[in-house]
TrEMBL record:
Pfam families: TIM (PF00121). The active site is at H97 (electrophile), E169 (proton acceptor). It is an enzyme of class 5 (isomerase). It catalyses: D-glyceraldehyde 3-phosphate = dihydroxyacetone phosphate. Pathway: Carbohydrate degradation; glycolysis; D-glyceraldehyde 3-phosphate from glycerone phosphate: step 1/1; Carbohydrate biosynthesis; gluconeogenesis. GO terms for cellular component: cytosol. Homodimer. CDD domains: TIM. Involved in the gluconeogenesis. Catalyzes stereospecifically the conversion of dihydroxyacetone phosphate (DHAP) to D-glyceraldehyde-3-phosphate (G3P). GO terms for biological process: gluconeogenesis; glyceraldehyde-3-phosphate biosynthetic process; glycerol catabolic process; glycolytic process. This is Triosephosphate isomerase.
């Protein structure tokens, strides 16, 4: 049975005190996780060690970083390596988020290197993929996402793939006023799973967790998560509000 996950990406938000309060509010919200369900919290780099302390006594809640460097170590001022993340107890790392691709020009090839470094340090990548509006309008979203998968993941073997989580981000539905329907999410998730099956086999495809990263909120999370190939969500803005994030988790 593949894992069901709700991951909260804080992005560049909150002070340390605000982050501590948010975590405390989440863990005290009466969330009961079933077998195979996980919660992942991804604060900014400076808060990682502190958040790890706050969640250490809560089984099923894990720590993620929002990025890692594409080099092992060295003179890369301002970068944070996968080895550093592992040393403070990071369990997951978000790689290839649409904002990293757009604002920092991260390429599929660079992400393949980051994935390898994360895996080498025992950290599970949450690999983000998804298409912008012009690609969706041209109805070439499948080809676009397939290329992202091929260029960043296809160098792995099936054993390594077991430690990968995929997050589908319909970029055109984030902050644009447009909304991806549950059917559109399901269609793309099913397509991604079919591509994994073609490359890595049916067993690998059935086992991989695929999250939805398109502005999920309490009002639509239940419908999205009910889709056959949607295994949870990568949550942005709603993860900054404890009541909303807890409600989304409970939608699993």
């Amino acid at each position: 049975m593949r894992k069901k996950i709700v991951a909260g990406n804080w992005k560049m938000n909150l002070t340390l005190a605000q982050g501590e309060q948010l975590v405390n509010d989440i863990v005290s919200a009466g969330i009961k996780l079933a077998e195979g369900q996980e919660v992942v919290i991804a604060p900014p780099f400076p808060y990682l060690a502190r958040v790890k302390q706050l969640i250490r006594n809560y089984p099923g809640i894990y720590l993620a970083a929002q990025n890692c460097a594409g080099e092992k170590s060295g003179a890369f001022t301002g970068e944070v390596s996968a080895e550093m993340l592992a040393s403070v107890g990071v369990d997951y790392v978000i790689l290839g988020h649409s904002e990293r691709r757009e604002y920092f020009s991260e390429t599929n090839a660079q992400l393949a290197k980051k994935i390898d470094l994360a895996l080498a340090n025992g950290i599970k990548p949450i690999f983000c993929c998804g298409e912008p509006l012009e690609i969706r309008k041209a109805e070439t979203q499948n080809e676009f996402v397939a290329r992202q998968l091929e260029e960043s993941l296809y160098h792995l073997d099936a054993a390594a793939l077991k430690n990968i989580v995929i997050a589908y981000e319909p970029i055109w539905a984030i902050g644009t006023g447009l909304t991806a329907s549950a059917q559109q999410a399901q269609d793309m998730h099913a397509f991604i799973r079919s591509r994994i099956a073609e490359k890595f086999g049916r067993e690998a495809a059935l086992g991989i967790t695929i999250l939805y990263g398109g502005s999920a909120k309490p009002s639509n999370a239940g419908e999205l998560f009910a889709s056959a190939d949607v295994d949870g969500g990568l949550i942005g803005g709603a993860s900054l509000v404890a009541a909303d994030f807890a409600a989304i988790i409970k939608s699993l």
